[in-house]
Amino acid sequence: MNITITYEEASFQQDAYEKIITRVCSEAALVYGLGPKAEISILLCHNEYIHALNKQYRHIDRPTDVLSFALNEGEDDGYDGPDTALLGDIIISLEKVAEQAAEYGHSFERELAYLTIHGMLHILGYDHMEPEDKAEMRGEEEFILRRLGYVREGETL
């Protein structure tokens, strides 16, 4: 899987962020059978930037933590298999990562990993609009995070 990580500001660039994102995306590629041609683009940004996107594309006038734009969005089948090349884009607010890590009482790293897999699952066709869909998606998120050791504070593997 090819993973492209870009930054709204060059000062955001950190090897630690890239390592977490790469681990999560690579694990998702393994678990969900994404082929070597699969490509995902991830942008790390400020709240202001993601706020503008959230307003433009979702008509919600506030910042959010993560946005996913699947290339095949709107298609019934979601991910088309290992020969699919361009999967889509994920945008993550680093400010929201920090805010939510503090709010939920876990590390910045765990929250970044969580938002990465959350975005990836949306790209792959998962959603959380209905309670049963939300439960399924949450199970998939926790499955990947546990495989990588990104557990909540006080949780054990």
From TrEMBL:
<dbReference type="GO" id="GO:0008270">
    <property type="term" value="F:zinc ion binding"/>
</dbReference>
<keyword id="KW-0255">Endonuclease</keyword>
<keyword id="KW-0862">Zinc</keyword>
<feature type="binding site">
    <location>
        <position position="118"/>
    </location>
    <ligand>
        <name>Zn(2+)</name>
    </ligand>
</feature>
<protein>
    <recommendedName>
        <fullName>Endoribonuclease YbeY</fullName>
        <ecNumber>3.1.-.-</ecNumber>
    </recommendedName>
</protein>
<keyword id="KW-0690">Ribosome biogenesis</keyword>
<dbReference type="GO" id="GO:0004222">
    <property type="term" value="F:metalloendopeptidase activity"/>
</dbReference>
<comment type="function">
    <text>Single strand-specific metallo-endoribonuclease involved in late-stage 70S ribosome quality control and in maturation of the 3' terminus of the 16S rRNA.</text>
</comment>
<dbReference type="GO" id="GO:0006364">
    <property type="term" value="P:rRNA processing"/>
</dbReference>
<keyword id="KW-0963">Cytoplasm</keyword>
<dbReference type="InterPro" id="IPR002036">
    <property type="entry name" value="YbeY"/>
</dbReference>
<keyword id="KW-0698">rRNA processing</keyword>
<dbReference type="Pfam" id="PF02130">
    <property type="entry name" value="YbeY"/>
</dbReference>
<keyword id="KW-0378">Hydrolase</keyword>
<keyword id="KW-0479">Metal-binding</keyword>
<dbReference type="InterPro" id="IPR020549">
    <property type="entry name" value="YbeY_CS"/>
</dbReference>
<comment type="similarity">
    <text>Belongs to the endoribonuclease YbeY family.</text>
</comment>
<feature type="binding site">
    <location>
        <position position="122"/>
    </location>
    <ligand>
        <name>Zn(2+)</name>
    </ligand>
</feature>
<dbReference type="InterPro" id="IPR023091">
    <property type="entry name" value="MetalPrtase_cat_dom_sf_prd"/>
</dbReference>
<dbReference type="GO" id="GO:0004521">
    <property type="term" value="F:RNA endonuclease activity"/>
</dbReference>
<feature type="binding site">
    <location>
        <position position="128"/>
    </location>
    <ligand>
        <name>Zn(2+)</name>
    </ligand>
</feature>
<keyword id="KW-0540">Nuclease</keyword>
<dbReference type="GO" id="GO:0005737">
    <property type="term" value="C:cytoplasm"/>
</dbReference>
